[in-house]
Amino acid sequence: MRHPLKFFAVGLPKAQPRARARACGRFAQVYNPKTADDWKTIVRNECQNAWDGVQWQGPLKVNILFVLKRPKSHFRAGGQLKPTAPLWHTAKPDRDNLDKSVLDALTNLGVWGDDKQVCDGRIQKRYGPVPGCLIEIAEAVE
User: Fold this and answer.
1) pLDDT in tens, 95-108
2) Options 3.40.50.300, 3.30.1330.70, 3.30.2270.10, 3.30.2090.10; which CATH number does 5-139 get?
3) Distance in angstroms (rounded) separating the CA atoms of residues 15 and 92
4) Cα torsion angle, 6, 47, 36, 59, sign
5) What's the pLDDT tens digit per position in 111-135?
6) Which terminus of the chain has a lower count of CB atoms within 10 Å, N or C?
7) How far is CA 27 from the centre of its chain?
């Protein structure tokens, strides 16, 4: 049994955008917007620093905790957090699109052969003081 890989990527999490299409004469050209590329680079760099370079095999469990920046409305005039400020982030971006950007970044790095190996795990979105995401990769067990 392999030890889990755990690391925190500091930065503003970005969702994987949907593919777009545009007309080019009589044909349609499909492309992926580059809005999440900087975020994916951050995730890849942090993983590279923590990872031993040995590709993960078999079914995997990936837990991801996304930490997003609180809006100003969560704070009092003096800078203290309001007691009514929520813990859970319920606004956009959607958690499935955030998950997709992280899994794509790790697939492109070669952490595993394909993200279809990820068959278990928890995805959370919370507010916190340092935006980013905590990622834990482990072998999936019954």
Assistant:
1) 999 999 999 999 99
2) 3.30.1330.70
3) 9
4) negative
5) 999 999 999 999 999 999 999 999 9
6) C
7) 34
